[in-house]
Structures are given as C-alpha cells and as structure tokens.
Amino acid sequence: MDKKASRIRRAxxxxxxxxxxxxxxxxxxxxxxxxxxxxxxxxxxxxxxxASTVDKDLRASLAAT
Length: 65
What we know:
This protein is an alpha+beta fold and 65 residues long. It has a domain at 23-65: 2-Layer Sandwich (Nucleotidyltransferase, domain 5), CATH 3.30.420. It has helices at 3-21, 56-62, and strands spanning 25-30, 35-40, 47-52. It has a 3-stranded antiparallel β-sheet with strand order 1-2-3, with no helix packed on it. A hairpin with a 6-residue loop joins strand 2 (35-40) and strand 3 (47-52). It is elongated and about 50 Å long. The N and C termini lie far apart (50 Å). The relative contact order is 0.12.
C-alpha cells in the first residue's frame, strides 16, 4: 500500500464517525491575522452561521480585549 492510499484509509474512519453522529459541528480556521468560524449542518450541505474577525461588528467588540 502506498503512502497516499494509507492516508486515505486512515481518514475514512473519523469521517464516517462524524457522519454517523449526525451532529451539527463548529469549523474554525485560523490564520496569523484572522479567525474564521462556521457552524455546519450534520450532512455538511449548509452553513448555518458564520463569524470572523474580518467582520466590523465583531472586530469592534474585540477591540477592548
């Protein structure tokens, strides 16, 4: 088994478990400058809510911290 095939095989179990649970999940992406967050439906077909430090409202509330 080559390196790519073994990586794909290792990745299937956690992904299957996420689908089986059927829970809404939070996805966070961090860059050195900003943080982005999304709430995603269980099947991953729709984003329910988003927030990021790029948004002016959130940036203003974080200015004091």
